[in-house]
Predict the structure.
Amino acid sequence: MRPTGPKEVKRKKGRVGRKTHGMRPEGRVAAVVFAPILDKKPAKDARGDSLDAPDRTPQARLDEAVGLAVAINLDVRANGVIPVPRPKPATLFGAGKVEELAALVRAEDAELVIIDHPLTPVQQRNLENVWNAKVLDRTGLILEIFGERARTREGRLQVELAHLVYQNSRLVRSWTHLERQRGGFGFLGGPRETQIESDRRLLSERISSIRKDLCKVKRTRGLHRESRQRVPYPAVALVGYTNAGKSTLFNTLTGANVVAQDILFATLDPTIRALRLPRGSKAVLSDTVGFISDLPTTLVAAFRATLEEVLQADLIIHVRDIADEASASQRADVNTVLADLGVDAEAETDRLLEVWNKADLLDDAAMERTANEAGRSDAILVSAATRFGLDTLLAEIELRLNLRRETLEVDVKPEEGALSNWIYENCEVLERSELEDGVVALRIRVAPEKRYKLGRLAGAD
């Protein structure tokens, strides 16, 4: 599909609808969405192979941007792919294109323009002046979504931190009275402190305060994680591109009621539940925030405390929407974020399992082709909505987890109360039987890092 110019910008019909000028549904902001496509050389690795996934077309990028806008209930009146052969430092687009898009913004009576590309503060300010509308780039839009979706105190702190760090670099566009000076003392600002200096100082103070609060949250989460580690169950974490079906899969596997909607970033706050495996084993399953292409670095940093659940997991399940045409690109994006967190998806294959979700959306031919490909890729093809493939998935989870855990038989004498207590607190007891003289025979499964301590307590060499 060739990129569209401004004359080919689409007026939305059906799902969001085009509204009569001057009128809009209660509480919804009229918006237009543009996806700039910049000419660039394809990225290559050390061997000269292309790093760019071939399936993310300009239209797919635009569709995702529109989906992000709809996710916060914007009234998207028009959208389009805009070729940008030579980006301009002042406005990104050329002067003629800026004027053409300004006419469209006026025609659609739009109050908000979303640019699916990073904008500098100067570009954002200049476009707002010409278009007489608020302008949000991709980072700003994602921050808006996160701000609306965060529910827990931790999530709100993380989003606020990311937003303030982002906004701190954009005070140049937030104030037109930077030459104004004001006097005062204390926290109100000293003599001849300019407005922007005061605002930067207040922002810096708030950022420092939030970071201190998040350090406390991190310590608390660490204590919770340590307490879970004392429970003898391995940890499994779900990761994946936003809207890949992680929460639906989480609910189906655990019987939980996490919000699962067909919108981007339905889940922000992590949820942890017990997972029962086919042969009686148990694990702890966590649902995490979805990833997305060009995820703002401020968000990755802010959500690092939450995403540490992934780093500490015994098994990471990468959930992919295999029915999405951009599935390969989404896989690359998720692996990039995992790498930023310290998880090498290509090297840690024994710790990472790909689950190809939404098989119910494939036709018969695609289903057969995808099933064969999944078999060659050591992936599990499932449908969280219909439960197709979930028995296979659970069996594979149990197999992967047990590869790291040794099964032993231990006889515990009546006087070895400390050993018995330690086993029940740190190991998974599979079977228990009573022998003569009060001796208890236990069949247990123990993690490798606890094997040495068990040997010492049991008096083994």
Observations:
- The chain has four domains: 6-146, 151-214, 233-403, 406-458.
- Residues 195-230 form the longest helix (36 residues).
